[in-house]
Amino acid sequence: MNSPALKSSNKYKTKLLIVDDNSNNRAALSYWLQEENYEILHANDGISALKITETFIPDIILLDYNLPGMDGVEVCQKIRSNPKLPFIPVIMTTSFAPEANIMALEQGADEFIIMPIMPSELKSRIKAMLRLKKAVSESTELIKENKKLQELDKIKSNFVSKVSHELKTPLQSILGYTDILKEGLQGELNYQQKLMIKQIRDAGDQLLNLITQLLDVEKIEKGELEISSEVFSIQTLFNYLSQVINPMAIKKQVTLNFVLEDKDIELMSDKNIVQRILLNIISNSIKFSKENTKIFISAKEAKDNCIEFKIIDDGKGISKSNIAYIFDKFWQEDDSITRNYGGVGIGLALVKKLVVLLGGQIFVDSKPNKGSTFRVLLSKELNNYLPVSMENLQVVV
Ligand SMILES: Nc1ncnc2c1ncn2[C@@H]1O[C@H](COP(=O)(O)OP(=O)(O)OP(=O)(O)O)[C@@H](O)[C@H]1O
Ligand SMILES: [Mg+2]
User: Fold this and answer.
1) How confident is residue 396, by pLDDT bands cut at 50, 70 and 90?
2) Could you tell me the pTM of the whole model?
């Protein structure tokens, strides 16, 4: 084994290891590659090659197939199975013997070259392998980053769900005592006190709703949210929605128009889940609309035995590049602390999960400053999943 003199330079030099028992071959390969400005080390047998590889960590190895003692195939297998090493492309150098070439590739080599070889071909093949290495290490980095992000996401979710559990019990007791006071069970309240109690109750309800949404997302992720099925008319559903959400619309001076072409349409599904899907979408529409605007909420029968709900607002809309994120947990177009709108960005993440749970689809069409249309397609009978081959969720921009 001998090593060529290395010029000191700050620029990273690609490290190349040439393994060959024939010193003439090693010299020839080094000579042909000298213009490439590689940092080259030589090894004349398999054992030295493995030792050098552990410390030098080459970017690429030219490995003779016919080494004495430990042959090229064994060296290659040992390199591949060493968990401490990154992916290092191995080019096996062979004399013309087709079986040897196939064997080399099957045993973990990435490429083979038949000696003698034209210097230009040698250089091109090395460059191709270095491109492969770059692609592999980039994707390995991405996988690592992704894993880290997933772990962080898990920690965040655990934290959020623990805090939510801890908040829910005392909050329920605050709301319970508020109701006792509100109903005058501890003495009649004056007008001011009644107003204050109402405000406490409303704020408490908002907080409870947020906690419930957070806990439900977690439940769905763990597969613990149970679905039940009952028959109900869309008319009753719309009556309920209008009753629950109208106070919010009135406060914002927004008009809600419920449009139902056929009053007899019925759905056999999880009523509570359908209500929550629509309440979330409608409350977003109210939140992101200006005063004195209208929101249309409609339902009609659609093909494949489905019902199509449509919620149309002419509010602030969502930019094309952001639409892809709106169903992500905690994503908000404006997440600054000075933002004008409340919420934590959990509503649509829950909506998406609930729609998928019911085997439905959701579509979004939105333009900044023009408004948004959300379409939810649900099967009229739960368990009849929509006949889609792709994902259940589709976002249409
Ligand atoms: N109808 C809409 N018009 C404009 N933007 C919308 C609309 N619906 C959703 N968005 C955008 O998508 C983001 C995510 O919506 P999502 O319902 O998940 O969160 P949120 O409403 O901000 O908070 P939360 O639902 O927790 O109260 C919103 O913050 C907003 O930027
Ligand atoms: Mg929301």
Assistant:
1) very low
2) 0.68
